[in-house]
Specification:
The chain has 125 residues and is mainly beta. It is 0% helix and 47% strand. Strands 1-2-3-10-5-8 form a 6-stranded antiparallel β-sheet, with no helix packed on it. It has a 3-stranded antiparallel β-sheet with strand order 7-6-9, with no helix packed on it. It has a two-stranded antiparallel ribbon with strand order 4-11. It is globular.
């Protein structure tokens, strides 16, 4: 089925492609090239369980923007950390090594966006 530019796509919250992050943490890819064929950006959400400390990754060519829906923690960038809490927004430039550390007692929930139509090319830091 081809889509016209005016087509609206609704992706149910529980229908995203799930990506396991370890320790019960995960990301769900919602708006991607497989769900909205003519998109130029992608969106999803992540849940980081208490105690999570993800390996640092590098999104080679895409910038990432995230909004913290709930919880608090730290984004690790190389040897540095930056604290965040619910209501904060994050901007991560392309090529920046980063991970998420949840040193709190509640889940961190983030909505994220990439400047690419699918999950961008990513490598370990």
């Amino acid at each position: 089925m081809s889509r016209e530019k005016s087509d609206v796509v609704v992706v149910p919250f529980n229908k995203g492609e799930k990506v396991e992050l370890g320790g019960g943490s995960f990301s769900s890819l919602l708006v991607t090239n497989s769900t909205a064929k003519i998109n130029k950006n992608m969106m999803g959400y992540s849940v980081f369980k208490a105690g999570a400390d993800t390996k640092q990754k590098i999104h080679v060519e895409a910038e990432e923007i995230a909004y913290v829906v709930s919880g608090s923690g730290k984004i690790t960038v190389g040897n540095k950390t930056h604290a965040f809490k619910a209501g904060d927004s994050l901007y991560i430039p392309p090529g920046t090594p980063h991970g998420v550390r949840n040193d709190g007692s509640e889940d961190i929930v983030m909505v994220f966006y990439f400047s690419s139509p699918n999950y961008p090319k990513t490598k370990d830091a």
